[in-house]
Amino acid sequence: MEFIAPEIDDYCITHTSPESELLGKLNRETHAKVLQARMLSGHLQGRFLAMLSQMIQPKNILEIGTYTGYSALCLAEGLTEGGKIITLDVNEELEDFVRGFFNESSLKLKIDFRIGNAIEIIPTLTETFDLVFIDADKLNYANYYDLVFDKVRKGGYIISDNVLWSGKVADATKKDKDTVTIRAFNKKLHEDNRVENILLPIRDGLMVVRKI
Predict the structure, then answer these.
(1) Rounded to whole angstroms, how far apart are CA atoms 16 and 133?
(2) Which SS3 state, helix, strand or coil, does residue 190 take?
(3) Nearest CA among 42, 52, 44 for reference residue 132
(4) CA within 20 to 30 Å of 65's CA: 11, 90, 115, 121, which one?
(5) What percentage of the chain has pLDDT greater than the value 70?
(6) 90 occurs within a structural domain
C-alpha cells in the first residue's frame, strides 16, 4: 500500500482536515482490537471519501463491505437531508463493535447497517443510488459492479477500493488469483462504454466511475 515516501504521506495528512473525535477513536480502536486493521480507510482516504460525498450530495448511498464502519461514517457526511447509506457486511463478529460506533454518531439515523451476503441482498434493494462504494471480497468485485449498475442513477458514481492491490496489478509477474481478478476488474471498468473512469493512486487505489 506504500506508493509514496512516508514523509510525503505524513505531509499530506498534516495538511488535510483532521478526523473527527469519533473517527479518531474508531481508528485507534480498530488498530488496537481488530485483525487486519490495514483494511481501515483511515484519515487521508476517509477525508477524500467524505469530500466526494459532499460534492455529490447523494440521497442514497450503498456501501458493500463495512469492516469497522470508518468509510460509512465518512460517506454519510455528504448525505442530503432525509438521505441514507445502506452498508453491507458478512462479518457477524464485528457487528456489535460497528453498531456501537454508529450509535455514537450524530448521523446514526442515516445509517442502515445490514449483516448478510451482498450477492443476495443487492437484488432485493429497490432504491436508486447516487453513490456506491465497493470494498469487500475482491473475487466478487465484478459481480457487485454488475449487480448494482442498473440501480445507479445516470450521472451517479461507483467507487471501488484496493484496485492497485499493493501495486501488484502493475507487475506482470504477479499472477495470484486476487491480483489477476483485480487486474481484470480494472480492465472491465476501463472498457465499459457506459461510464467515464479515473484510477487514483490514493492509498491502495480507488477506481472512480461515473455513469453516463
Answers:
(1) 22
(2) helix
(3) 52
(4) 11
(5) 99
(6) yes
Q: Is residue 137 a part of any domain in this protein?
A: yes
Q: What number of CA atoms fall less than 13 Å from residue 15's CA on the CB side? A: 5
Residue 5: predicted pLDDT = 83
d(CA 194, CA 209): 9
Residue range(s) defining the domain that contains residue 114: 6-211
Amino acid in position 199:
L
Check the CA dihedral 11-14-17-19 and report its sign: positive
The distance from CA 65 to its chain's CA centroid, rounded to whole angstroms, is: 7
Q: pLDDT category, 2, cuts 50, 70, 90?
A: low
Q: Which residues of 51-69 are buried (b: 16+ CB within 10 A; e: fewer)?
A: ebbeebebbbbbbbbbbbb
Q: Cell 483532521 belongs to which residue?
A: 18
Residue 177 one-letter amino acid: K
How many structural domains comprise the chain? Answer: 1
**Cα–Cα dist 204/134, whole Å:** 13
Supply the CATH number for residue 186's domain. 3.40.50.150
Closest CA to 144 of 185, 184, 180: 185
134 vs 144: CA distance, rounded Å: 8
Q: Are strands 152-161 and 195-200 parallel, antiparallel or unpaired?
A: unpaired
Report CA 11 to chain centroid distance, whole Å: 23
Q: Out of 14-18, 39-43, 92-96, 204-208, which region has the weakest mean confidence (pLDDT)?
A: 39-43
Name which of 173, 179, 177 is nearest 205 in CA terms. Answer: 179
What's the CA gap between 24 and 193, in Å, rounded?
40
